[in-house]
Amino acid sequence: MRAVPKTDLGKNPMPTASSARQFPCERCPLRGFDIFRNFSAEEVKFLNRFKVGELKVEAGGAVLNEGGPSPHFYTVLTGWGIRYKMLEDGQRQILNICLPGDLVGLQSAVLHDMQHSVSALTDMLFCVFERRRIWELYSKQPSLAFDVTWLAAREEQMLDEHLLSVGQRGAKERISYFLLFVFARARDRGLTRGNSINLPITQQHIADTLGLSLVHTNRILNQLSRRGLIKWENRQFRIADRPNLEDLAGWRPPPDRERPYL
Amino acid sequence: MRAVPKTDLGKNPMPTASSARQFPCERCPLRGFDIFRNFSAEEVKFLNRFKVGELKVEAGGAVLNEGGPSPHFYTVLTGWGIRYKMLEDGQRQILNICLPGDLVGLQSAVLHDMQHSVSALTDMLFCVFERRRIWELYSKQPSLAFDVTWLAAREEQMLDEHLLSVGQRGAKERISYFLLFVFARARDRGLTRGNSINLPITQQHIADTLGLSLVHTNRILNQLSRRGLIKWENRQFRIADRPNLEDLAGWRPPPDRERPYL
DNA sequence: CGCAGGATTGATATCAATCAATAACGGTGG
DNA sequence: CCACCGTTATTGATTGATATCAATCCTGCG
């Protein structure tokens, strides 16, 4: 029954889809990273019409709220976010970290109700789509429809891995695993320099992701530091001894090939 | 480093898609349950060609194995199964229970590699599809493509809930929640009688699903029995005091409307 | 300067894992 | 028919990991 810091509770009750469009799809900020697949001219043309705007959310703001339906769903263009669920007593389970290229709010588009929330860790920019038009995508652009399924399947795969971690691994293993996981995802998106990264998450976030208490998380992190496996101060995180960290985590490099996005 | 019983380790290294077709799609055993949506004649016609056969797996047999790709994916027609991942040291995390209507092996169809295994708790019958033909479905039957996404999103939703449970709830709450969850899913498929059900799972399965030890699971179950919330002997399980069990579990009735299947 | 959010540390409590043994049951082979 | 064995369930004793409680400290910032 521990309190979640205010900065993590959404400031925006329900964001309004803004409006100004900085990025036509041809100049999507996601283009140009190796991991993201290229689109055909036709696909880009479709997406340009399918996209209804951009949404900016400031750090700490709410993007989607558990409970209701949402008229929109989004692709993350820039920034970091979290996807989470709350328990009545205030416990929070973070389900995943949201990074550029991730599709959020698909549940609302397909199943009608959001069963989780999304909020921003840093300032974020989203590409906005309309839920009620998702059928257009399925009927007119099967290749993109396939991509949506791909993204859903990949999210499921991450959750599987995550559940394995929380259910079966000890605290050291869980934490090492999670750090490597986040790092790998960030690296794919060009957010790292060598083995270093600017991590916009707190120990509380790690605790809430892994089902550990803040205090215990802190102790384990210090232990990893003292053992020379990682270094983390302020927001600067570094993998100091990758082989041993990977070994401790039981890390299996993800089979991540090229991936789609919307 | 506790051993998983042999009966749960697949006997069939890799099943061969049989063959004889008991059920043309018009007489699919899934039809007729309220929760499953009806298909148009056109959809049924397509599915009849898309389906390449049926697969029978006996209790304890393997359906899909972690690691490789699989040439097929399946819809569960009858029986109970589990979807799980193993750790090197033999720990097993059960990710979900598979019941009629569930689509399994989608990951292999979409992402090329299975990152989890599926095995049968009871004798099972599957409807078999071919991975390499999945594009046909997307290009020719957008409504079914949408259904596939629906199923993936729903699976993700269950995993979210599950992760919340394992990460944040205590053992009593987890177990009560899981029992209610399984019961609700089974009821939708006509597998219950009132508050009773023939449960083909062992305490070990519950333990492996919820990240608890077998011994502890046993104690909690007995505690729930002694408090008069449940009754479970042999395979017969009964919810004896639903209000209090739901209360303990923090149960929120699932928003389950009509759902698709393939 | 003073404050809030975040990190850290020590002491203690508790939940759940582990170790160890036994029991009930069904199947199997001699 | 009985002895044996594996699976599942059960119980007691003990250990261990992690949570909780309570301070303190640090740092960036208004």
Compose a concise summary of this entry.
Two copies of one chain form a homodimer. Chain A has 262 residues and is α+β, with helices and mostly antiparallel strands.
Name the chain pair with the biggest interface and residue counts per chain: A-B, 48 and 48 residues
Elements of chain A, N to C (H/E): HEEEEEEHEEHHHEEHHEEH
Contiguous helical run count of chain A: 8
> Which overall shape of chain A is indicated by the principal axes computed on the Cα atoms?
globular
Largest sheet entry of chain A: 4 strands, antiparallel
Q: What's the β-strand tally of chain A? A: 12
Q: Fraction of residues of chain A in helices?
A: 25-40%
Oligomer: homodimer
Using only CA atoms, what is the Rg of chain A? 18 Å
Q: Within the largest sheet of chain A, what's the order of strands? A: 1-8-3-6
Low-pLDDT residue spans of chain A:
9-17
**Roughly how many Å apart are the termini of chain A?**
38 Å
Overall pLDDT of chain A: 92
**What would you call the structural class of chain A?**
alpha+beta
Report the β-strand fraction of chain A as a percent range: 15-25%
